[in-house]
């Protein structure tokens, strides 16, 4: 495995985004970890600074040392800029400003611009949502049934990077080196450390590897037939059609008693729960979610006799589970 594969393995491929975008934080994290592995600074950096490669290596040694000792790593462009300025205090002003420009980070005299992605202001989270997840493409094996999936979020995400355990980072680095040396037994043992901590190395479509955090998601407000119930297989197949191989956005509202995140899932602008209800592959779970639109979508499918509503009085999954628990 070459240096590019190491880079992809740990944090995925990132483009440096427009000024003020959190992509600069990810790029900085990538380059620091890449320096730890290869002892090489970014190739294009010399276009932005005045000092030699040897001086640049000295900067990254300092940045790496401070990064590893920090209790929390930078999450925003402003925090990343302060991190660089404080770590390289006493170095040439032109070099520090050039390094900030290289990562599209705000200069010391600049006030941060509003967050913009692709020219469109980032919308606020829906009321009541605690946080937002942006997943890697959803794998078929990660879709358990019609209302539960597993998503993986890139560990280089600015919200994820500061909370990745140091043991996971070290195991990821060691695993990459073991695979490069074709020591697959050691690599598998190191991957177990990663998975036991709630992470995984996800393989991309082009062979790249990305360290990612695992989240189990229960679709909020709906209840699909269990796998062994009538229409259980069809409900899962419908969810597969909606999300397999695609990136999803999840607004998380809390956890259920099984430790799953309860959330609304969007895929390419489509509200997944809406599709499941309108196509007749789920019930509105009124006991836990009283949103009127969910009830309306269920009613629409029921009146059109779509999906599970094509049979009279289909058994409700919560009643089916209760009967199973009671042995009936």
Automatic annotation (TrEMBL):
SUPFAM superfamilies: Anticodon-binding domain of a subclass of class I aminoacyl-tRNA synthetases, Staphylococcal nuclease. Keywords: Endonuclease, Hydrolase, Nuclease. Residues 134-311 form the TNase-like domain. The keyword Nuclease applies. The keyword tRNA-binding does not apply. This is TNase-like domain-containing protein. The lineage of its organism: Eukaryota, Viridiplantae, Streptophyta, Embryophyta, Tracheophyta. GO terms for molecular function: endonuclease activity; hydrolase activity. It comes from the Eukaryota.
């Amino acid at each position: 495995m070459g240096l590019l594969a190491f880079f992809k393995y740990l944090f995925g491929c990132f483009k440096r985004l427009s000024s003020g975008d959190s992509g600069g934080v990810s790029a900085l994290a990538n380059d620091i970890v890449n320096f730890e592995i290869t002892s090489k600074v970014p190739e294009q950096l010399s276009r932005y600074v005045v000092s030699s490669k040897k001086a640049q290596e000295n900067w990254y040694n300092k940045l790496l040392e401070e990064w590893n000792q920090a209790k929390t790593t930078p999450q925003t462009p402003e925090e990343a800029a302060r991190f660089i300025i404080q770590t390289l205090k006493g170095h040439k002003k032109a070099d520090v400003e050039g390094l900030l420009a290289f990562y599209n980070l705000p200069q010391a005299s600049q006030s941060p611009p509003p967050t913009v992605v692709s020219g469109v202001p980032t919308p606020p989270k829906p009321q009541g949502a605690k946080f937002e997840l942006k997943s890697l493409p959803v794998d078929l094996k990660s879709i358990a049934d019609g209302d539960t999936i597993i998503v993986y979020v890139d560990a280089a995400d600015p919200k994820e990077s500061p909370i990745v355990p140091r043991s996971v980072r070290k195991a990821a680095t060691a695993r990459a080196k073991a695979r490069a040396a074709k020591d697959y037994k050691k690599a598998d043992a190191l991957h177990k450390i990663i998975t036991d901590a709630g992470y995984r190395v996800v393989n991309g479509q082009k062979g790249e590897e990305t360290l990612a955090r695992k989240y189990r998601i229960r679709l909020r407000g709906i209840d699909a037939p269990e796998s062994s119930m009538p229409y259980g297989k069809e409900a899962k197949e419908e969810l597969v059609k909606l999300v397999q191989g695609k990136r999803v956005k999840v607004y998380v509202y809390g956890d259920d008693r099984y430790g799953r995140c309860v959330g609304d899932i969007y895929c390419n602008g489509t509200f997944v729960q809406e599709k499941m209800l309108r196509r007749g592959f789920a019930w509105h779970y009124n006991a836990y979610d009283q949103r009127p639109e969910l009830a309306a979508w269920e009613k629409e499918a029921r009146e059109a006799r779509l999906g599970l509503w094509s049979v009279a009085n289909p058994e409700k999954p919560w009643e089916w589970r209760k009967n199973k628990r009671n042995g009936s």
